[in-house]
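Let us practice reading a record.
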Amino acid sequence: MIAKEKLDRINKLANKSKTEGLTDKEKKEQKELRQEYLQNVRKSFKNQFKTMTVVDREGNDVTPQKLRDLQGKNKDQ
């Protein structure tokens, strides 16, 4: 999870960008913070996805093979 301070900084830079513009240094910082945030979101989503099981109306496990393969790799690690 990304620190609250970093989220606050991302929002501060976004607001400043809309109102007065950013310096080159601030633009670089904003880009780095956004990349870190996106990596964190993707990692979190992937971990959540790995725990999913798809079940049809009859109660049969119909989890796609691609997801099962991903879950299998996760167990090995």
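A brief commentary: The two ends are 21 Å apart (CA to CA).
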